[in-house]
Design goal:
It contains ten helices and 13 strands. It folds into two domains: 2-114 and 234-243, NAD(P)-binding Rossmann-like Domain (Rossmann fold); 123-220, Dihydrodipicolinate Reductase, domain 2 (2-Layer Sandwich). It has helices spanning 11-18, 33-43, 51-55, 68-80, 96-109, 123-126, 145-148, 163-169, 175-184, 231-243; strands at residues 2-7, 23-29, 46-48, 61-64, 84-87, 113-114, 134-143, 156-162, 189-194, 201-209, 212-220, 222-223, 226-230. With 252 residues, it is of the alpha/beta class.
Length: 252
C-alpha cells in the first residue's frame, strides 16, 4: 500500500484525509500544529511539530496541499529525502529556474514530481503540445469580484498576458494557468475577468494545433467546507493517488 505524508492540513488536506483509497496517510505536518493534530483524528497517522521530523518519517510520497511558499521551502528537501512529491500549489513552478532545479534534483535522486489536473480538465490530451506544437493556447478565467477582493459592478478584464506573469499578481487564484502551460510545453495566454453575476469560477480553455481545435469549459463548485477552494481541484488529487498503483491507467 502506498504510504503518504501530508504537507498542509487545511481544507484540501481534510478532503484527502476523509477519503479511503488504496493508500494510507501515515505522517502529517502543518505550520499550524493544531491543524495536523485535528486531522489525525480523521485520517490516522502521526502529526509532527517540525518539518525535519516529518520528512524523516517512513513513507513513500509527500502530498503538498499547503501553499506556493511551502513548495519553495520544502520541495527540494523532500526529493533529497527520497520521497516522491505531489504538488498542488503548482504556481511555484512558474519560475523556470526553480522548476528546472527541482526536475534536476528529482532525476538525480530517482524521484518523481506529480501535478494534479486541479480545477480544470483536459491536461491529458493537451500534453500533445509537447509533441505537435500548439499554435494557440488561451485560458480565460472568470471569477466573482469578492473572490479576488476587487470591487466591480460589471464584467471587467483585470489581467491579460502570459501565465508566468499572471501567477505573480494572483498567486493563489490561477494555479491552473501554470498547470496548463506545463502540460502543453509553452506559456499559456491568460485572460482573467471578474464578474459580479457569476457564483462559480469558470475556466475556458482554447487550443489549436495540427490536431484541430479544443474548447473546454469548466464551471467549478466550491468545496463544501471552504468556498475559496475548488472541489474539483481536491478531487483531482484523489484521482491521481488512486491511479498510482492501478494496473490499468486511462488518459495518461
Amino acid at each position: 500500500m502506498l504510504t503518504i505524508g501530508l504537507l498542509g492540513c487545511g481544507n484540501i488536506g481534510h478532503i484527502i484525509g476523509k477519503f479511503r483509497g488504496n493508500w494510507k496517510i501515515v505522517a502529517l505536518y502543518d505550520k499550524i500544529a493544531d491543524r495536523a493534530e485535528e486531522l489525525v483524528r480523521e485520517a490516522g497517522g502521526i502529526s509532527y511539530r517540525s518539518f525535519d521530523d516529518f520528512i524523516r518519517a517512513d513513507f513513500d510520497l509527500v502530498v503538498e496541499a499547503a501553499s506556493v511558499q511551502a513548495v519553495r521551502m520544502y520541495a527540494e528537501t523532500i526529493l533529497r529525502h527520497k520521497k516522491n512529491l505531489v504538488i498542488m500549489s503548482v504556481g511555484a513552478l512558474s519560475d523556470p529556474s526553480f522548476r528546472n532545479e527541482l526536475v534536476s534534483v528529482a532525476e538525480g535522486e530517482g524521484r518523481r514530481i506529480y501535478i494534479p489536473s486541479g480545477a480544470i480538465c483536459g491536461l491529458d490530451n493537451l500534453k500533445v503540445g509537447r509533441i505537435s506544437p500548439v499554435s494557440r493556447l488561451l485560458l480565460r478565467t472568470t471569477k466573482s469580484p469578492s473572490s479576488l477582493g476587487i470591487p466591480a459592478g460589471e464584467r471587467t478584464l483585470i489581467f491579460k498576458g502570459k501565465a508566468n506573469e499572471c501567477i505573480k499578481e494572483f498567486p493563489k487564484n490561477v494555479n491552473v494557468s501554470v498547470a496548463l502551460s506545463l502540460a502543453c510545453g509553452r506559456d499559456a495566454d491568460v485572460e482573467l475577468f471578474v464578474d459580479p453575476r457569476v457564483e462559480r469560477n469558470v475556466h475556458e480553455i482554447f487550443a489549436e494545433g495540427d490536431f484541430g481545435e479544443i474548447y473546454i469549459r469548466v464551471s467549478n463548485l466550491p468545496s463544501p467546507d471552504n468556498p475559496a477552494t475548488s472541489y474539483l481541484a481536491a478531487l483531482s488529487i484523489l484521482s491521481l493517488l488512486n491511479q498510482m498503483d492501478d494496473p490499468l491507467v486511462i488518459g495518461a
